[in-house]
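Title: Prediction job returns without error message
Component: structure pipeline
Severity: low
Priority: P3
Assignee: unassigned

Description:
Job completed but the reporter wants confirmation the result is attached to the right record. Sequence as submitted:
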Amino acid sequence: DIEMPLCAVLADMEQEGVGLDTVKLAELSAECDRRIKAMTDDLYALAGGELNLNSPKQLGVVLFEKLGLPVLKKTKTGPSTDEEVLSRLAPMHALPALVLEYRQLAKLKSTYLDALPKLMDPDGRVRCSFNQAGAETGRLSADHPNLQNIPVRTDIGREIRKAFVPSAKGHVLVSADYSQIELRILAHLAGDPRLIEAFQKGE
């Protein structure tokens, strides 16, 4: 009753695709380049010399040997420099916090700013696949490309989202979300009068 009728809607969405403002994406990519360059110079200064920022081993040497920061987690190849470790080290030194920022910016640039224009079809639209039964939580997911993972909390993430535009004149983009869907279903299935009343009163 719920999932089957949705199939046709999702099929339409997949065929329709979404328009992309490639000029905006190119501008953002150039801005990212500038920010990454400035960030890299700052990182080299904090590290006391140049290093391959994408090498966990080289970063580990700087963090744990040169700067003497505590090793919080180990992997088979040595001390871990993953996101969790860098987040915990960030209050102790400026370098880990800046590495996190650098990684996030570099990932956004490669995953979206540089990749999305290459995934466009000749009509200027990007088409992804929607999965109804992919996520364990029952949520809808998307891939090839995943358009649901663009961060909204960062300024650059918000700017990337602005590059998605209606694909035809007179069309609009609509954002829709269920509010407390699990509790609504619970109220319906359980027939609980107080829970039903709370929803009816908008509480």
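Comment from assignee: result matches the submitted record. The two ends are 27 Å apart (CA to CA).
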